[in-house]
Amino acid sequence: MFRILIAEDDAAxxxxxxxxxxxxxxxxxxxxxxxxxxxxxxxxxxxxxxxDIMMPRMDGYTxxxxxxEAGNTLPVLMITAKDGFSDMQQGFLSGTDDYxxxxxxxxxxVLRVGALLRRAQMINERRQTIGSTVLExxxxxxxxxxxxxVLPQKEFQLLYKLVSYPGRIFTRQQLMDDIWGVESExxxxxxxxxxxxxxxxxxxxPDFELVTVRGLGYKAVKRHAE
Length: 226
What we know:
Helices cover 42% and strands 23% of the residues.
């Protein structure tokens, strides 16, 4: 049974989320703020976090940022009353995986939770699938229509990172730190070069494309069938 941590200071909303998750076969834990969520994480195994932004003591942005800085890759679904682009931008840049705006459709929330858990499981298995395209980490190979293409290590790692989180924006610096290492002296524009190579390789791929988000960085998006 998957264990879900809800960080939400609205007690009624927290109880609602808990009831819905229980009905869907999940085991919920609740925290009234980010600090309490961290305390729970120290003593409980958690598979996914649902977090509000505005909370006492420690807000959702800080919670997610501290987790990512500590190397914790738990999937996070951020739920908030803030619907401005800048708020969404800050949420994704802090390291959240998905974002919903209140009032929340709880049925949609359950669908998103399931999608995030499946994605996390595939990443742990070192194999990622998007449409008919399969990325196998151990062999650095991308399969399309049964045909495999072995990529240079950095290109594969960059593509795998982006495809593992469709729609999530990564800054150049985030990608540099994750793939080349925080101590690397390689210029951030190296990411642009590798992105362009990947675009050339997979220009006709029916399942995904790599998109530049001006002023932010890059993301992989799923292509929709015509």
